[in-house]
Amino acid sequence: MITSETVIEEIRQSRRRMSEQSGHDPAKYIEYLKTFNTKYSSQVERYRKEHCPPSVKASRTSKGKGVSP
C-alpha cells in the first residue's frame, strides 16, 4: 500500500537527484525546472482549467509566457 509518507519520500529523492544533476547550483536547478514548463504545458493548462479559480488562470497566462512555475 502506498502511503503519503512513501510519496513524500519519493518526491524528496527526486528533488535530491535533480539538485545533484545541477551541481547543487540554485540557478542551474531553477533553469532545469523551467524546462518542464514547456514539456508539460498542456497537462498544466488542463489541470488549471479543471481545478483553478478564474483569477488564478488569468494571472498565470496574462504574463505573456504561458505556463509559469
Could you tell me the number of beta strands? 0
User: Unreliable segments (pLDDT under 50, ≥5 consecutive)?
Assistant: none
End-to-end span in angstroms?
Answer: 31 Å
Instruction: Note the run of SSEs as H and E.
Output: HHHH
Strand coverage percent = under 5%
The mean pLDDT is 83
Cα-based radius of gyration, to the nearest Å: 15 Å
The portion of residues assigned to helices is over 70%
Number of domains: 1
User: Tell me about the biggest sheet?
Assistant: none
Structure in words:
This protein has about 70 residues and is mainly α. It has one domain (about 5-60). It has 4 helices and no strands. It has helices at about 5-20, 25-40, 40-50, 55-60. The protein is flat, with a radius of gyration of 15 Å.
Strand and helix map with partners:
Layout: H1 4-21, H2 26-39, H3 41-51, H4 54-61
Q: What are its keywords?
A:
about 70 residues; mainly alpha
In short:
The protein has 69 residues and is mainly alpha-helical. It has helices at residues 4-21, 26-39, 41-51, 54-61. It has one domain (4-61).
